[in-house]
Write a structure and sequence with these properties.
Elements (H helix, E strand, L loop, with lengths): L1 H9 L7 E5 L2 E5 L6 E13 L12 E15 L3 E8 L6 E12 L2 E9 L4 H4 L20 E11 L4 E8 L2
Antiparallel strand pairs: 1-2, 2-3, 3-4, 4-5, 5-6, 6-7, 7-8, 8-9
Length: 168
């Protein structure tokens, strides 16, 4: 009787890679969770309609404010990447393209093009803003730039720091 019980406990199933599709987009993760790849997007559209003004140029039109596919993932457990082009507006451009090394939550290093760590409203992600435009004082802080940054979150995000060198 004891022999079959040993055989069943020795035959544990191997962990399998996980592929999911949900509100956060598409995510594929390796069985050991050291590698992952995700795809999600952001689309914001603006309507321009002036009631009772038939002769106004641009009346009853739509404008694509933001059209951003976001490719992100993890390599070798500690390296994270993000590639975020922008297709909204009149020109295609790269908004974010960086590699982040995560030694621990309190000590990380980022290299590439990303938001400079200045300006509270600007650091908030576009999908979480109440309006499609930011307040006028946000125009006074630097935007996305090429650079290198040491940063981290201490005590679960109670205290955060960032110091970096940027091109602009």
């Amino acid at each position: 009787r004891s022999a079959p019980a040993k055989e069943s406990s020795a035959e544990k199933p191997k962990p399998m890679p996980v592929v999911s599709l949900g509100s956060g987009g598409f995510l594929a993760t390796s069985a050991d969770t050291n590698f992952s790849f995700g795809l999600r997007g952001l689309l914001q559209v603006d309507s321009r309609t002036f009631f009772g003004a038939e002769n106004v140029q641009g009346n009853d039109s739509f404008l694509v404010r933001r059209a951003r596919p976001m490719f992100y993932g993890t390599l070798f457990r500690d390296f994270e990447f993000l590639f975020n082009p922008e297709f909204g507006g009149s020109t295609v451009q790269i908004y974010d393209a960086y590699l982040n090394y995560r030694y621990a939550p309190w000590l990380q290093a980022r290299l590439g093009k990303f938001k400079s760590p200045i300006g509270l409203e600007y650091l908030q992600a576009d999908q979480f803003t109440s309006f499609s435009e930011r307040a006028l004082p946000t125009a006074l802080v630097p935007g996305r730039d090429v650079g290198y940054q040491i940063w981290g979150d201490v005590s679960g995000g109670v205290f955060s720091y960032a110091i970096g060198v940027f091109n602009g």
